[in-house]
Amino acid sequence: xxAALLVAGAxxxxxxxxxxxxxxxxxxxLLLVSxxxxxxxxxxxxxxxxxxxxxxxxxxxxxxxxxxxxAPLYAGGLLLVAxxxxxxxxxxxxxxxxxxxxxxxLLTVALAVSCSVVLGAALLGASAVELxxxxxxELAGVLGALGVLALVTRLVWRERRxx
Amino acid sequence: MIxxxxxxxxxxxGLASLGLLMALVLGRxxxxxxxxxxxxxxxxxxxxxxxxxxxxxxxxxxxxxLEGDEVSVELELESERPIAHLELLLALPDGLELAGGSxxxxxxxxxxxxxxxxxxxxxxxxxxxxxxxxxxxxxxRFGLFVYDGELDLSTxxxxxxxxxxxxxxxxxxxxxVYSGNQVxxxxxxxxxxxxxxxxxxxxRMRRINWRASARRNALWVxxxxxxxxxxxxxxxxxxxxxxxxxxxxxxLSVRAAASLLAAYVGHRDRIAFVSFGGIxxxxxxxxxxxxxxxxxxxxxxxxxxxxxxxxxxxxxxARTLPPQALVLAVTPLLDERAVSALLDLRGRxxxxxxxxxxxxxxxxPAASESxxxxxxxxxxxxxxxxxxxxxxxxxxxxxxxxxxxxxxLEEVTAFRRSARHMRV
Lengths: 163, 424
What we know:
heterodimer; A: 163 residues; mainly alpha; 7 helices; globular; B: 424 residues; Immunoglobulin-like; 4 domains; 6-stranded mixed beta sheet; 30% helix
């Protein structure tokens, strides 16, 4: 919850006017995450994370202008909220975890969040490289993104249908 | 093990897709940055999903214990591949409870070395159990997949009822021909003094009672009661039970029967067993510890089986009820079939004693006036039933949990001592 509060509060901190309104999405995200954790409704958690992400997107759109350098930190924060949320919900089972297992999971979450920050920074850096632009490059980007989407969708679809 | 995707997989894939789509629509690279970690975890999770094949073995430190004892279950886990998260649940049958440790437990199997878990179990109730049915659930490193499996490595565990030590058991009216610890009613070679009689030719010199002979100026000899064994049939009524929570009249009946069996085997008597109920079980008479274990094993299988068929003593094999045997019935006197069968046995001339396992403490307290009236009527009917048995020369002693069985048995003995031995 603390991680979700930080992620929700960061875009509206020191904001004024219309930028404050995007905080409503953050509040919605917080409510969804807390409802998911309190009621054990695992299906609500991704909606909460999406709302928190939506708050940041709305803030970007309202703000406009240059690329936000803090995006990797938001990505790490969102991943942290999601990972800790799922961990909390999984932990509601009656199984008692051994200490090495808890430590290992904590390290895995920390590593995943750190990697996401590094990956985000690398992606932002790559996006800043001037390649001259053009339709071909734009098309390659769109096709690449769609390809990643198709690949992930296919993998997930296959796993869900053929357990 | 059966693999299934967790909700996390769909959620992460959905978040990644949403982020990438929005990035395409809005043309903001920050959205790619937001979506990338989720996409990367999904891709890595799907690509690196392991196929865990844990092997498990279950061992019990003892396979025969007494009620209330503890037994240790050793679970040895092994896997060729490391398992990041493994949950293990050992199914515990009713009557066994965890005395320590955690069940279920979540652990990791980092390498090929076997892990051993010890779970102490307390045997709360007598019975025959199968321990070892285990449910396993493994998760991958990212928590995107679960692998469920069940292993049935059942090991038998027998929990014997804790018998009360009885110094004295009910003495049978008649004894058999073999030597034992019961003092026979007839006279012969033995230790217990019976009577004096005049000397006749052929009497041994050592049997002459010199003091009596000197007083009467003629030779008188001592007569003794010989020590013989007896045949005892434990008749367990398993037609019906009264239950409240974990305790029932059947539980008490089995404990009482086990105590009686142990006492008679200690006296070197031949014991037989009849479980008269929805399912009829019997064991022909035998003696010694082997017979005791045979009967107690049979006791463990006793359960209440609903059956509407009318049964009488004719269904019991004749060899199980030897003539002149003492039949000790352990019954809550709840089912009309058992009540009639016992009267029938008495009518056939069997030496019968009844240890009544009182169902009264198991009855719910009356909540209204009509219920109180019904309860009083029921108690009066039970009293009338006891009187009916007593008129037939059968001793009925009530036993309730918390009081020693020996007290109830003493009541039976006292009745048999004072009551006229009746033939009906």
